[in-house]
Amino acid sequence: MHAEAMYTKTTHAVEVTVEPQFLADQSKPEASRWFWSYTITIQNHGAQSVQLMSRHWRITDASGRVNEVKGPGVVGEQPTLAPGDSFSYTSGCPLPTPSGIMVGTYHFRDQAGEAFEVDIPAFSLDSPSVGRVIN
Fold this sequence. Notes:
The protein is mainly β. The chain contains no helices and nine strands. The chain has strands spanning 7-11, 14-22, 34-44, 50-61, 66-72, 80-81, 86-95, 99-110, 115-126. The strands form two sheets. Strands 4, 5, 6, 8 and 9 form a five-stranded antiparallel β-sheet that branches. The chain has a four-stranded antiparallel β-sheet with strand order 1-2-3-7, with no helix packed on it. The chain is elongated, with a radius of gyration of 16 Å.
């Protein structure tokens, strides 16, 4: 079993934790396709409710190709987190190389309607065949 790392970052009292996992059963190296899932937990450590409005990802493969993904919410939801609440979801990422890196931001709105950004920590996508790679 390939041990996966967890990555955590807190911005504006919102903590984002990411746990990526390589999915060998969905990967096809002979077709230049490697696939990962990642589970993200977002926790509100602040004093007021906040709502996740949208996301922006920068996904870089081992060849340096960058794919940007922007859109409303996450997995079809725009969750509101009261103080102390958390929200978790799992999504996936295919790459044409056996390793890469993802990093991004969530766009939130507080109770007063003020927008702010929350950093998603950079996390490494490494297939077991290449081991841990510093991307």
